[in-house]
């Protein structure tokens, strides 16, 4: 399954969650996990995804980016003080 297909499935899942929620729960949080064998490419994938979400001109083949469904993307502080923040910038 390609990245575009995975992304489309995620989009559909988010739409499904949103449609079942009503105010005041209009801002659902979707947490995604990335798993794989050691050196499989998890860190490279996550870093690339973050970079491309922050600069979406670089991934026009992602439907949600091409049709403007993604309104904005930004990094937030690590919400769990016991887990170090992913060092995206480095
Ligand atoms: N050419 C190149 N290869 C890289 C770079 N960073 C990682 N790699 C290689 O890409 C592959 C995947 O690396 P990672 O994304 O770090 O793998 P990972 O799944 O996060 O691995 P673990 O954190 O050990 O579980 C490995 O073969 C790395 O040696 C890079 O900056 N340049
Ligand atoms: Mg890693």
Q: What ligand species are in this complex?
A: guanosine-5'-triphosphate, magnesium ion
Strand content: under 5%
Radius of gyration in whole Å, from Cα?
15 Å
Number of DSSP helices? 3
Give the helix proportion (percent range). 25-40%
What structural class do helix, strand and pairing data support? mainly alpha
How much is the average pLDDT?
79
End-to-end C-alpha gap? 30 Å
Number of domains: 1
* Total E-strand runs: 0
Q: How would a textbook summarize the main sheet?
A: none
Helices and strands, in order, run as: HHH
Q: Which shape, going by the Cα principal axes?
A: globular
Multimeric state of these chains?
single chain
**Low-confidence stretches at least 5 residues in length (pLDDT < 50)?**
none
Write up this protein.
By secondary structure, this protein is an all-alpha fold. The chain has one domain. It has helices at 3-20, 42-54, 63-66. The model has no long low-confidence stretch (mean pLDDT 79). The structure holds guanosine-5'-triphosphate and magnesium ion. Guanosine-5'-triphosphate binds next to helix 2. Magnesium ion (MG) is lined by residues 42-43.
Task: Provide tags for this entry.
single chain; 3 helices; binds guanosine-5'-triphosphate; globular; mainly alpha; binds magnesium ion; 90 residues
Question: What does this entry show, briefly?
Answer:
The chain is mainly alpha-helical.
